[in-house]
Design goal:
By secondary structure, the chain is α/β, with parallel strands linked by helices. About 55% of the residues lie in helices and about 15% in strands. Strands 2-1-3-4-5 form a five-stranded parallel beta sheet, with helices on both faces. Helix 2 runs parallel beside helix 3 and helix 8 packs across helix 9. The radius of gyration is 18 Å and the shape is elongated.
Amino acid sequence: MEQSVKNIKCIIIDDEQEACDRLERLLIKIPGVEVIAKEKNPETGIKEAIRSFPDIVFIDVEMPGKSGFDVVAEIREKKIFPTFIFVTGYDQYAIKAIRNAAFDFLLKPVDIDELKVAIERFRVEQKEKQKIIVPEKLKVKYLLTEREIEIIKLLLEGKSSQEISEILFISKHTVDTHRRNILEKTGLKSSNELLKLLSDY
């Protein structure tokens, strides 16, 4: 029997009440999306994200006390890794948002069609992630650690060492060290060979 698809749980962090309310109204029009919290204060937004493990955090860039980038960093420091979508009226932040591993970037006032595209892209990416499974016997055979398994999955998603370092909140040097260890343990030369190895199990 096919499993039911769970709702996408979202949090909105924005100091502008009107912007919060507008985004919530748009999100609830999209089937399968649930807004579980709206926070005007960055600090309470961080606490809510840590408490509730949302799938997506919609976050403003400029807020009193902390920027959206500060909030992203603090949530990741707690080893919580939701998808972040920045929502702001300042398009000059787009490049910095991407460099901070934002999944997407929406300009205010948010357009419902652009929001739907972002949500659909999130759904597609989640389906692809679910396909990536590291078999238990592979873990045992090559004595892979949990961190190495995390990195393998991200490599198979096409992520670079820099992107992995930002997602896992570790240095690029540490990621590269793990990558070398993985290839040494498995006797492989590249991520492509690793993908082929997984497909054989």
